[in-house]
Amino acid sequence: MLSEAKGGLEAVLGQLLIDLYKPKTPQFIFCETNLSSSNCKVTFEELKASRTVTLAVINTARNRTSPIRVKVPKAFFQVYGPSGSVIPADVICANATDENDCDLWFTDSFNVLESRFYQLRASTSSLIVKGEKTIPPFSSNRVLKLSKSHTFTITSNFTDFIHDVCDDTGKNCKEYRWRTQYKYYQSYQGTGNDQNSGPKIFRPDNATMNASKIYAKAINSTLYQGKTVVQININWGNVVSDIRFYLSDLDYFEIETYLDSIDVTDGIGKEVTINFQTLGLSNNNTFYTDANGLDFQKRVTGQRETWKWKNDQPAAGNYYPVTAAIYLEDVAKDQRFAVLNDRPQGGGVVQPGEIELMINRRLLADDGHGVEEPLNELDWDGKGIRQRVRHYVLQTPAKENVTTIRILQARLDQPELVMVGTTANQGEQAEVIMPPPLSLGDFVPKLVKFFLRPFPDGAYLVRFHNTDDQNPITFDQPPFFANFNTIRETTLTANQDKSKSSRRFFGGDANPGQITLRPLEIRTFVLSNNPSA
To answer: Which of 383, 417, 433, 518 has the fewest Cβ atoms within 10 Å of its own Cβ atom?
Structure first.
């Protein structure tokens, strides 16, 4: 179903971009970033043959500056921006098993729903960033001065990190320390009527019910320092992780994990986690998880708020759904450590000060809750399915509003769409003039998520979501509202006028021509040109 939806979107957007792009382009397609570059035949074959590739980047949300990633082979080319001039970019080839599996990175600024075009043109100069490989332990810590405000330190064992965050003058710094590890629980595989760990039940066996075991240990690391991105590639053997800092926005950093097949030849199912152990923070057994991407819920390790709980499953009993984010904080030290995920996962704080999130499970028994088979998905080669997941770490003062987490969440929820295509007039690529950026302007406040959907009859559905947990937001109606003679506010699902709903609603707009959103409120409008209106 997802594949069909993606194919439909690719066809519609691809045709739209062809109509907008004056130099004729045969076809625009999506290329997955979680596959190797050879799976994207457009970029792989064209760049290997020193031919030009066209990129279209569509901003699906509010104005922002974003890093753009494209899978490319190891080739010599330059990136030309919408103005036709060369822009800074990096190519990082970090796949130790395939030197042609590379990532192109560049950064640009986008307005609301803006489309921008780029070209990758053959060149004699290279964008490839040379890696600096090291094997632990270091003789001393490795210090990376990312900016005046941000310094990142890799300790001698590769697993402990220090992030110094200062003000714009490089003073008043806070030091955040943590340890990244990969651990696992052995799944319970009982006999008779015992409750097994399975597709719907998480139950570690007796050996790991209180604490998980180490799944992987760091073997070596490679540092790539580019003009737009700094990447630390860590090889753990059965895991490979990439820590990335985007130099255009150092308020957060990304950890991408490639988890190889889970080995169950010992007859024991395993449930693998990524763990962030904060060092020196006291969270008072308290942490917070989002509720379906909305309000943060307070959790206390080993407790339930409204009833007395027998803590006979210390690990499983402290796991909760994490749709978007989980965080803990030390109020006394005024430090908050938040982790955002790229998909819903189970997670919690089982050990003091240590956030963990489940990234893959391979089980050998059914839990008896309807699936009637073990959770043992296999990949193309008959081995356990592999996973590539991303987590985003945000470190802020504890007294700061949690909307800093919401801003990043909104950004991750609505990523840019990147499409690639060949350029028909390869012999005239130097004279190609790319169309100017196309945008609806900048009308959405920073903390508001914006969603626009067209209907076949010419109407549009528009949603605004205030991601601020504490404050209402009022802003002017977007300019394009004036193009429609009928503006109806509806219920969230847009199947009923809000005025006709029997449900009680609060708030509203104090002034005509403005929209007011209460904290975390979502409002839906349908715009149309109704002749009878």
So the answer is: 433
